[in-house]
Amino acid sequence: MERSQWSSKLGFILAASGSAIGLGNIVFFSANAYKFGAGAFYIPYLLALFVVGIPVLIMELALGSWSGKAFPAALRQIGGRPAEFVGWFGLVSASFIAMYYITILGWVLGMWLGALGGDLWKPSVALPAFGLEEGALPNPVAYFFSMLSSWWNVVFVGLVWAANMVITWRGAKSIEMAVKVFVPLMWVFMLVMIGRGLTLDGGLHGVALLFTPDFSVMTEPAVWHGAFSQIFFTLSLGFGIMTAYASYLPKESDQSASGLMIASLNCGFEFIAGLAVFSLLFAFSMVPKASSISMMFFVLPQGIASFPTGVKLFGVMFFTLLLVAGLSSSVSLVESMTGALGDKLVGRSRAGILAAVCGCGMLGSALFAWPQVIDPALDGDGTVGLTLVDLVDHWAFSYGLLLTGLAECLLVGWVLGPHVLREYLNAYGRVKIGVWFDVLVKYVIPLILTVLIGFGIWGEVRDGLYGTGLAGAGTPWALGALAVWLGTSVGLAGVLTMVGDPPREEVGQ
Ligand code: TRP
Fold this sequence. Notes:
Amino acid/polyamine transporter I; 18 helices; binds tryptophan; mainly alpha; globular
């Protein structure tokens, strides 16, 4: 099977920035900033960006075009089979993220239809399944839960998976076609949203709030953990996604420049998205709850519903923005797994591999969306589906990502030697990278990641798994989700490492 290639540098930059810019930029950033000290959050955020984010991004890009292979095979070139195992472990964890990310996009599709059809803007409906009468909840909330308790939500999730499959059908070629439309569209829509937000009465007050620092939170480990996680998530790092995308470029690419470009585009978008969200929210004196899900589906739509004019127009635009930004991110998760399997299972058809990846993904996503898993007895958000999303995010994202990122840095830092990638980068790059890169990759980043993992584990011990208390009612759920994630990731990664070996490669370059 021919490996696919981007047709141009522009196509690659659009695709990589499309992967980076997603729900993370539009909602998770603002939710985190609000929760973690508003203006003060920029301090750990920028530190995380420069000390860890940009160096790891450049490292993952370099790894891809240097090896010309997807993540597991690229790591194998460095450290043999154990290293390849790390790559698969990361990709299986990334697949869990794809499952819940696409479930959320399915819900976005449902809300988009409601916004377009107008039902979302009507007075609130009754929710018999929850024992709630008409008008008991603001309409976006009632609409969301009535969608979640119907089979439609499984249909929506299936449709978003189908869209992912169509977009990744021909690898880089078809992804490039999609992002050429999606990426410009999301910039335009975001600029329109921020224009609307800032011109609302009180909009500027919201922006001022985003920049008002609350320094008292800086001593909390959770804030630092939040900032580093946000940087990893928003730049699509730690799972070799950027490695996969960069492997479709010629070896002579300037990856230092690409890295700086992708990081600037992503963080620029995140910055203006923060302005838009804060101006929208505070114009209507709404306080975003800590959960980004409720911000995306309840609070922001309520804000839009209170616009003096153009409710439907801006509502449809908001959900279209979430959809295209989310799709250009989710396809990168699907492609990195499909591409890696294609490199490994030489001789298998891409269509077959893609169908298997999307089929498994769809089943997983359906679990999050299954109407039966909505349980009014649960407190908090009231559904097992939402709790499952949170739980899987907690394990697969927080731990899967930190562990894979740590192992990746150790492999490049101590087995390959960071100077190999640095010399490669400098051979083709205009921006020259100094020895600081070696110091970061070898010592600083592994140390930071180890501390973050350590704090995480300490938290599990202190507050019970996933903060459920040592014998809390949620503990079996937390334990179950941990077992499923760890069991599947380790088991599947082991199998994938052992099976269908490609012809022997030369180790090293
Ligand atoms: N970066 C995307 C966002 O901000 C999400 C995403 C896509 C991602 N691919 C990823 C996150 C890989 C972690 C790893 O929404």
